[in-house]
Write a structure and sequence with these properties.
The protein is built from 23 helices and 25 strands. It has 755 residues and is α/β, with parallel strands linked by helices.
Length: 755
């Protein structure tokens, strides 16, 4: 609808109707205002499928059947922009068929700690991977005329006391790590809505924080949609509207609406702020409602096959001793299939994102259908989901002993990772670990398939011959696993998060699970931390094996020297040097060789998934932009690109760097630094004209020509004790008040005005 018509509608609305529109009518719908032809729209979970509940006014976990696609870690582990966009398109089609106007996803919070209870809903520990995968997801969904709700904005990184916890963080960390993914999605895909989180940031509830919602999201990033609260996240509706929240979900609290109406009438709440919120909500209501289609259907089988493709593209081959995989079916007569997850697979998370699938591919059944006519398959439960039961273990041992191969299906039960609770450790259940250890003792050809939503420890990693990280792979998990085992699909997934050897190694270990959460590790999360601290992980970020091999043969630039206004085009030559067709994920990292601020050793800035036939070689182009070389400067409140050398590192993972090359950066960025009497002496030396002011002050205070030598000695000897003194202390104790403050202030004013 045209903006002029929306403004006409706003002018016809009463104050009461405006406030009503900014409130959910039911748990899942907005208020209609029939005499103005304002329809109601439906909002539904979730990030990896449509959970449209049977009753509108209900938080029931069971919804109408829809495709349960792989969860967020799986999507990120594909590192495949195109397939995630296709997923988004499929979700958009399903929304249309189910008459859903806003899909409440994706979740794009960074994985700060492996203990985060909802890590299975989030993509990665890295903001670039998160931002690019999230952008593809949103672009795909919204291409069908359905809105998305990117969540949970922001710094919602634990479940403990999530309604009131306080994320205490500095602005640089917030900008570089926790907001960067959201920023990329907003600027590149313009999601129709953003969902604000429950928590506080630096003492202020997010739903009432104008710095986050208004200044950054709407003003700086140019967000055009509306901000809605997470369910029951708004504490004070009047204050929330004043500070950038547009739609409160869900509420029937008439008293709160009356408070807002009275605040508007009494002039306490600016009516133009209310009008702007109404305008934002109306834009999206009309935009999505106009795309509704009666009796629309989606192709369930086609979408199921997409779920299968996604799952197989996401699975990560962690270990493959002696190339035991893919299975050589001609040499195998008997396979032992062990573990309850082979029959009752864990394929999605627990909580508000839980989907009622259209079907479920059971791993054991899929194996029977694929190879059961040629090979004998024997199943043994092996474990209770949590408790070690000796009789189950003994049965599994006997089955494994009498087989050529043992496949163990293990992972995390729903009670181990769920919305509303954080994990207390990152271990598999004792019964799962015990089964893997005991079977590996009697069967050298043991293969472990893991089904889990976040990283786990593997104290047994040296025992089995192969390990596959299967994630929570959705309703097609079983068929996708069989595709990988049999070699129908060559595994190409790579880890979207670091797997530490033990929980204590992770950077947030001392600052997690409290009400006041101090982000003391700052920008050093995930691989940034492990690399800086030289801590070896179990498996690094970006890691994953293939049934073939790849050779990185050459790196070139279009320019050896660039400025901060130029793009850098990087060309990588990649060859499939193995014996199977396969896909490789090229990862581009950037290192600031010498920075004025502490930075990670390197940071991911670009990636591409490339498919090559045996012997095929391709030259792939990457474009790095100004932001890829920048950091957020806390003093200048801006993104800074420094002059100097930057190293471009090309890897198969964050630790497996194959190619390197230096580019020289010449930056013309200049930033006004306002010096005061409280500025440190070193700040004056760093300022282009600061030294001149010091010369004048020293000259006037002592009438001596030796002051220049004194200042030179300070800088040459790096006399930090003196350099760290504020100017006012120099005036008081060195000049002994010989120069009046009025004179100093006058010189400072001239200095600042003539920058």
């Amino acid at each position: 609808m045209e903006e002029s018509k929306i403004n006409e509608i706003i002018n016809k609305m009463t104050i009461e109707e405006k406030v009503q529109l900014l409130t959910g009518k039911t748990f899942w719908t907005t208020y209609p205002i029939k005499h103005l032809n304002i329809p109601s729209i439906f909002l539904a979970d979730g990030p990896h499928g449509i959970r449209k509940v049977v009753g509108q006014d209900s938080l029931a976990m069971r919804g109408i059947e829809s495709i349960c696609f792989p969860t967020a870690p799986s999507l990120a582990s594909t590192w495949d922009i195109d397939i995630v966009k296709r997923l988004g398109e499929a979700l958009g089609e399903e929304c249309i068929s189910l008459d859903v106007q806003i899909l409440l996803g994706p979740g794009v919070n960074q994985k700060r700690s492996p203990l985060g209870g909802r890590n299975f809903e989030y993509f990665s520990e890295d903001p670039i991977l998160t931002g690019k995968i999230g952008t593809a997801f949103v672009t795909g969904v919204q291409s069908k005329g359905v809105g998305t709700s990117v969540k949970h904005f922001a710094l919602n990184n634990q479940e403990y006391e999530r309604f009131s916890s306080d994320s205490i963080v500095d602005e640089r960390t917030m900008r570089e790590i926790y907001l960067a993914g959201f920023e990329m999605i907003v600027k590149n895909a313009q999601p129709m809505t953003i969902m604000c989180s429950y928590n506080k940031i630096n003492g202020i509830q997010v739903s009432e924080q104008s710095f986050i919602l208004q200044k950054i999201l709407k003003n700086e990033w140019g967000f055009e949609g509306f901000v809605l609260s997470d369910w029951m996240a708004s504490n004070n509706k009047e204050n929330s509207i004043r500070n950038g929240l547009d739609l409160e979900m869900p509420t029937k609290n008439q008293f709160r609406d009356e408070e807002v109406v009275n605040a508007i009438k009494e002039g306490k709440l600016d009516k133009e702020i209310v009008n702007e919120a109404v305008r934002r909500v109306l834009r999206i209501i009309y935009k999505t409602y106009e795309n509704r289609k009666d009796n629309a259907l989606f192709d369930k089988e086609k979408h199921h096959q997409l779920a299968r493709e996604l799952a197989s593209e996401s699975m990560v081959l962690l270990k493959n001793e002696n190339n035991i995989l893919p299975l050589d079916l001609k040499k195998i007569k008997k396979i032992a299939i062990l573990g309850d997850f082979a029959i009752n697979p864990r394929y999605q998370g627990a909580g508000s994102s839980r989907i009622t699938p259209t079907q479920l591919d059971i791993p054991f059944e899929c194996l029977k259908n694929e190879i059961g006519n040629e090979i004998e398959l024997f199943y043994s439960q092996g474990y209770n989901l949590d408790i070690i039961e000796d009789n189950l273990v003994r049965g599994a041992i006997e089955t494994a002993k009498d087989s050529d191969i043992a496949l163990i299906f293990a992972g995390l039960p729903p009670s181990y990772e769920s919305e509303g609770i954080d994990r207390i450790h990152i271990d598999l259940p004792p019964s799962h670990n015990n089964l893997i250890e005991e079977i590996s003792k009697v069967q050298k050809n043991t293969i472990v398939i893991l089904l889990n939503g976040s990283c786990v420890t593997m104290p047994w990693i040296d025992l089995p011959s192969a390990v596959i990280e299967g994630w929570l792979a959705g309703q097609a998990c079983g068929s996708a696993i069989v595709d990988i085992l049999t070699g129908k699909i060559n595994p190409s997934g790579k880890l979207s998060e670091t797997f530490p050897i033990k929980l204590e190694d992770n950077p947030s270990f001392l600052n997690f699970g409290e009400h006041d959460i101090i982000y003391g590790e700052r920008i050093f999360i995930g691989y940034r931390y492990y690399e800086k601290k030289k801590i070896k992980p179990l498996f690094p970020f970006g890691y994953g094996l293939s049934y073939t091999s790849f050779e990185y043969t050459k790196i070139t630039f279009d320019n050896e020297e660039i400025t901060n206004t130029m793009d850098l085009n990087v060309f990588i030559s990649l060859k499939n040097s193995g014996h199977r067709k396969g896909k490789e994920i090229i990862q581009i990292y950037v290192r600031d060789v010498k920075s004025n601020l502490t930075r990670p050793y390197k940071e991911l800035k670009a990636f591409k998934k490339i498919e090559l036939d045996v012997g095929e070689e391709k030259k792939i182009k990457f474009t790095l932009k100004k932001r890829d070389f920048a950091y957020w400067h806390p003093k200048y409140k801006s993104w800074i690109v420094e002059s100097g050398d930057f190293e471009i590192l090309v890897g198969s993972s964050s630790v497996d760097i194959r190619l390197k090359k230096i580019v020289s950066m010449k930056s013309d960025q200049k930033f006004q630094v306002f010096l005061t009497r409280n500025s440190l002496l070193k700040d004056f030396f760093a300022h282009p004209n600061g030294r001149k002011l010091l010369d004048i002050l020293f000259q006037e205070a002592s009438n001596s020509e030796n002051n220049e030598n004194f200042l030179d000695r300070i800088t040459e000897m790096k006399m930090n004790l003196v350099l760290d003194l504020p100017l006012n202390k120099i005036i008081e104790y060195l000049f002994l008040g010989k120069i009046p403050y009025e004179k100093v202030d006058s010189l400072l004013l001239q200095l600042n005005n003539n920058f």
